Amino acid sequence: MKILTAPRMERCIGCHSCSLSCARLVHKRLSWDTSGIRIASSGGLSTGFEAKTCLACNPAPCVLACPTGAYSQRKGGGVVVRKNLCIRCGECAKACPVDAIFLDTTGEPFVCIHCGRCVPYCPHDCLEMEKVADDTLIKNVPGEDDS
Amino acid sequence: MIRDYFRVLSVDLSTGKGSVLEIEGRDTVAGGSGLAAFLFNQFAHIDKPWNDPDQPLIFTIGPLTGYFPLMSKTVYAFKSPYHDQYAESHAGGRSALALRFADLDALVVTGKAKRPSCLYIGSRNLELKEVHYLWGMDIQTSGKMLRHMFKGAGHRSILRIGPAGENGSAMACVNVDTYRHFGRLGGGAAMGVKNLKGIVIQGDGIFSLSENKEYPKLFQEVYRQLTDTDMMSKYHNLGTPENVAVLNDLKALPFRNLQQTSDPAIKGITGEKFAADALLRNAACAGCPVGCIHIGFVRERFMEENRYLYRQVSYDHEPIFATGSMLGITDCFAVLSIIDITEKMGLDVMSAGVSLAWATEALEKGIISEKETIVPLQFGDAHGYREALYHLAHGSNDFYRLLCQGIVKAASHYGGKDFACVLGQEMAGYATGEVFFTSQALGLRHSHLDAGGYSYDQKPKGKNVADAVDFLVRDEQERGFLTSMVACLFARSVYTKDLMAECLRSLGYETLADTVTPVSRTIQKLRWKARVATGFNPQSVSIPKRFTEITTWKGKIDETFLQNLKEEYAQRIIDLAREE
């Protein structure tokens, strides 16, 4: 499996091509917000930019928070969202520690699906699809069993 | 949002209330430049002066804004404090996409706020917030304050003015998102006179795209074309400062108030020099992958012990010409330090630099003294210029109060018109010859971007007046359609008429797509009518003697050719404004 990563954000010029292309091509909307990756200046334009995108947690807090099973764990990290099961409660967005889930005014959630459509639109190669084993991330996270 | 009418938010600053208007006209004036002139006709008061509270500030975007790459500019129209006539200024940053996502084709601001205020708008909000405590603050500080006061980091645009705009300077710009500007013809003062310190536009609207396959396919193709071409490399690599060395080699770079057209000392301020020594990083307007904004730095030692501060300053060809070669400054960091103060003061960098170049020569010639300039001005002395910019923005004495209304106004009082480098307004950084001088002196915006006169000068076209004027009229018409979409003009080689028609068609603007040429013509006439109705007489435009004294790579300027071009272009403009 592959996941979207943003390893070179210090190169970002704030053109928003990634988020606009995701909104346009993946979510079929014209918007700055309904995108799996959103760009914000980190404290003003003179200090550069940060990407708000899914970190492909495994286990994902948004999956644990979802009361209806609309969110499920994606192999390799991240989530699969079945919007027909979603009741627009917004618990997923509240649970996300990095503000990667956008809720529109109706409460519909928008989150990265790790498809990589945004990657070729970055003119400075800030983004990368990284290959991971299906269970890599959970193994690498130190847990209670570590001594 | 795709619609066959314009959705316009009209806000009255005297009440803080607004109304959403649905105005017909998409198929006749398109948007952007066309829409701005169209709304000016509806909202402006031709017979009242620019500073009358009833005069409108008009911000427009176009049908392709946000839908295609490099459709990233906003048109700002107002009655100008510089000449009290119709004026248009263009800027990018995030302003265009913010208006798009605020679900507006245009914002019209009328009235005067009771106290200094900031207008905050979005797809679901409208608020006029009193900000009297920001009055007097420079561009950077007020920008930081406004960022904290309003929500929406990254997906909003913050327009604000500095001291120059507050003090009614006809050289005051509107700063857009720190590194871009509605620079020319005093748009900052048009805001200031309304007690409007800032406008924050929140881009929080979401629009569904139609299911048709054409649009996403064409979007990807246009994106590919724009990022594959030489254009990408030109504006992405050295950026517009690439022109500095090129024009210097051609003997076409204004130096020391256009006393020269080249100088060996250029090595210190070429695009190559800036890139090697001063370039920190690049930035982009929202929706543009080119990233032409080049950001350098100013580093200042502020204590004897090794204590430094630094600031980031954007640079381009025009600011380098205006604060570098024109002032005889040939060190890139000294240039950045002057641009930095210009930015803080909220001055248009071209007008400010060129006016200080005139003041320097006037001082040299004894027409004025240090009583007028307050500080000594000398070509090459950055320190004096940095201080003078403060006085220019604040109107510290009678001399600066007059100079900040334009060199011609100061020269009318003190003398020195012959060496006033003014082509309708303070000149842009091209001394390429007769066609450019005519183009800027008579152009609708008096901008180097009105038509490609500088490019025509550089081609072996001969001296046929009709051919040159045909080119100017045609090129202006084509650019007028681009700026009605609203495209960045850097993309003009990619966005041909056919491609724009294809883009419009993919979104459902079938009628507009089928009528690009006649609509271009309508827009051209509409803009000229607005200009002429507010008092512009192209036949009264004079080109100062200095422009006829220079030598370029082609030799001496041909005064007869220049005069004939001017007369012919003036007549064509009058004809355009009269046509039904």
Report on the architecture of this protein:
- The complex is a heterodimer of chains A (147) and B (580).
- By secondary structure, chain A is of the alpha+beta class.
- Chain A has a domain at 2-56 and 98-137: Alpha-Beta Plaits, CATH 3.30.70.
- In chain A, 17% of the residues lie in helices and 20% in strands.
- Chain A has helices spanning 17-26, 61-65, 91-95, 136-140; strands spanning 2-5, 29-30, 37-41, 49-53, 71-73, 79-81, 102-103, 109-110, 128-131.
- In chain A, the strands form 4 sheets. Chain A has a two-stranded antiparallel ribbon with strand order 1-9.
- The mean pLDDT of chain A is 90.
- With 580 residues, chain B is of the alpha+beta class.
- In chain B, strand 7 and strand 8 (126-130) form a beta hairpin.
- The two termini of chain B are 31 Å apart.
- Classes of the chains: A alpha+beta (147), B alpha+beta (580).
- At the A-B interface, helix 1, strand 2 and strand 3 of A face helix 3, helix 4, strand 13, helix 7 and strand 14 of B.
- Strand 2 (29-30) of chain A pairs antiparallel with strand 13 of chain B, so a sheet runs across the interface.
Q: Identify the CATH homologous superfamily of the largest domain in chain B.
A: Aldehyde ferredoxin oxidoreductase, N-terminal domain
Radius of gyration of chain B: 22 Å
Provide the low-confidence segments of chain B as ranges.
none
CATH class bucket of the largest domain in chain B: Alpha Beta
Overall geometry of chain A: globular
Q: In the CATH scheme, what's the topology name of the domain at 2-56 and 98-137 in chain A?
A: Alpha-Beta Plaits
Mean pLDDT of chain B: 96
Q: Whole-Å distance between the termini of chain B?
A: 31 Å
Q: Structural class, judged by helices and strands of chain A?
A: alpha+beta
How many helices of chain A? The count is: 4
What's the CATH architecture name of the domain at 2-56 and 98-137 in chain A?
2-Layer Sandwich
> Based on DSSP secondary structure assignment, what is the total number of beta strands of chain B?
20
Overall geometry of chain B comes to globular
- The DSSP helix count of chain B reads 24
* Largest sheet report of chain B: 6 strands, mixed
Name the helix and strand elements of chain A from N-terminus to C-terminus, one letter apiece. Answer: EHEEEHEEHEEEH
